[in-house]
Amino acid sequence: ILLLIRNPKDVATSFYHFSNRMSPLPSYETWDDFFVAFMTKKMPWGCYFEYLSKWNKYAYDENLMTITYEELKENPVLGVKNIAAFFGISLTEKELQSVVERSSFQSMKKNSQKTHGAFGDILFRKGGVSDWKNLFSEDQNEKMDKAFEEHVGGTKLGTKLKYEVYCKA
Questions:
Q1: Any idea which UniProt keywords this protein has (predicted)?
Q2: 67, exposed or middle or buried, with CB in 10 Å at 0-12, 13-18, 19+?
Q3: Cα separation of 21 and 11, whole Å?
């Protein structure tokens, strides 16, 4: 199993924009309204921290590889190599480069109309890292950090996310 996880602050930011563009989902007048709903577990898809906590039960399973979105953005070649090795797939240099190129956010966004139809514009917005800094107030940042520590701080997944997001930033 390949488990891709992401900085909870960017998850919230992404869900905010996604929710407001996806008509069946609740939309929010302001980021502040969304943030309250996100932090009080009022999301239609559940609580991201609880999702991470549930996966922590399997974090040491040899059949699970966890990788962060941030790792893949920072070094996609290494990320693809590690994923291929985990699944026992041997790639030539040409195949590796093809996978890296075709799985880049830019490439997926460019092809999203073909692969996802009209839904592609909703799914592929920016694909960046740290966009949360454009929305979070200092107070919201502190609340998110506290919730992170309470739910996943000190766990394998929490430690991995914290290193990728907080120590490398």
A1: Transferase
A2: middle
A3: 15
> What is the predicted pLDDT for the residue at 127?
76
Which residue reads 């309250």 in tokens? 36
Confidence of residue 116 (pLDDT cuts 50, 70, 90): confident
CA dihedral 32, 162, 109, 24 (to 10 degrees): -40
Rounded Cα distance, 111 and 124, in Å? 10
Kind plus residue range of the DSSP H or E element containing 113: helix 112-116
Reported pTM = 0.84
Domain total for the chain? 1
C-beta contacts of 114-118 below 8 A and 24+ residues apart: none
- Burial class from Cβ neighbours inside 10 Å (0-12, 13-18, 19+) for residue 22 reads middle
Q: What are 15's two structure tokens?
A: 């869900």
C-alpha–C-alpha distance, residues 93 and 114, integer Å: 27
CATH assignment of the domain containing 8: 3.40.50.300
